[in-house]
Amino acid sequence: MIFLKIRLTEGPNESEIMKKLIVVITATITAFSWISLHAGPDSDQAAFEKYFTSKFPDTPVSDFINGVYSIDKPSREQWEEIEEFPPYELAIDSGKAAWNKPFANSKTYADCFENEGAVRGNYPYWDADRKEVVTLELAINECRVANGEEPLKYNKGKMADISAYMSYQSRGQKINVVIPDDPDAMAAYERGKEFYYSKRGQLNFSCFDCHGSGSGNLVRADKLSPALGHTSHFPVYRSKWGGMGTLHRRFGGCNKQVRAAAFKPQSQIYRELELFLTYMSNGLDFNGPGARK
Amino acid sequence: MFKKVKTTAVASLVATIMTLGLMSYANVGIVSNAIASDGFESSWAAADEQRKMAAKLGFEWRDTKKLLKKAKAANESGENEKAMKLVAKAHEQSNDAIAQQERESSAWQSRVPK
């Protein structure tokens, strides 16, 4: 700064140059500050993946889709045995029957979804016309309503069954969420991101506190799963639930566990959270439905 | 005869004083209950308003609504002190939830992996 002051006194031409230089430096600093505060989804995803691959160097990145079993060998052995006769099999069968059963207007889910229901890889997505995030479960209910059927409840039951069947059909599809170059889409992504990292509830925990910085730690006898790959395997059969549940059922359960009021399944904020969290696992495979403790 | 009349008058006076006393006590009870009930209603409404504010911000805590429900039940069953304590707890929770939102509106960024 002293140098600049001295130089500014040296003459009118040099003064002009120095003024322009100051403007350029200030603009550059401002731009860098803005970029660091508003890193784009791509750099967010790269940093997110790196965080977990650094924290669990023995886990191949593709294995994070197996949740806690990617970092907990003893539990993995039990889980692999469970997978021989998976508890979600009945849900797949029930979902398949629902898929094939015509609606009252004689149409079926196949009239709404292509590829025999193997469409998990298309969700969630940003709908630019509606200016909102569309998830698979939302689309299932929209299909039903469009065909004169009652919507299903979002947390479990028939919704989890049909979602399980479609997820099973979609196994192996890549997670490839796209955030379009659209301020509304970016705002939705940012809201999901802010929700994910914000502490809430009486216990003052963020999602990341448990499944990021806390992943691998024990909660009672169980390890906390890493967030990378978290959305790949839903819906899941949870032993704790004694049945199937959707991703938003799990979101609500997590919120309640930290003593925060849960939001409704398929509420705007949970869909935006799903958008953000699924984007963080871009490049991994969908492998639902899953079985968890 | 005079003595008997005098005794009856004294007894009557005592009875009147006692009756007035009891009536007065009862009135005080009714008035104090009314004041307490009014205090409860306004405190409850203020706590619920704060809860709604926390909910609007997306930071309502899980048990706040339950506390307010319990407070209402306690008040209805005449447990005013317990009811007021529950209301105060619910109000405090909502204050903390709002403060949490204010803190987190910028603090969350520090947790994002770089």
Structural description of this entry:
The complex is a heterodimer of chains A (293) and B (114). The longest helix of chain A has 26 residues, at 12-37. In chain A, the strands form three sheets. Chain A has a three-stranded mixed β-sheet. Chain A has a two-stranded antiparallel ribbon with strand order 1-2. In chain A, strands 3-4 form a two-stranded antiparallel ribbon. In chain A, helix 5 (89-100) packs across helix 7, helix 6 crosses helix 7 (158-169) and helix 8 (183-197) crosses helix 11 (268-279). Chain A folds into two domains: 41-85 and 177-292, Orthogonal Bundle (Cytochrome Bc1 Complex, Chain D, domain 2), CATH 1.10.760; 89-169, Cytochrome c-like domain (Cytochrome Bc1 Complex, Chain D, domain 2), CATH 1.10.760.10. The model of chain A is unreliable at 1-10 and 32-36 (pLDDT under 50). Chain A is mainly α and 293 residues long. Chain A contains eleven helices and seven strands. Chain B has 114 residues and is mainly alpha-helical. Chain B has one domain. Chain B has helices at 2-56, 64-76, 80-107. The longest helix of chain B is centred in the first third of the chain and has 55 residues, at 2-56. Chain B is rod-shaped, with a radius of gyration of 26 Å. Chain A binds chain B through residues 37, 39, 44, 47-48, 50-51, 193-195, 197-202, 204, 206, 208-209, 212-213, 255-256, 259-263, 269, and chain B through 55, 58-65, 93, 96, 100, 103-104, 107-109, 111-114.
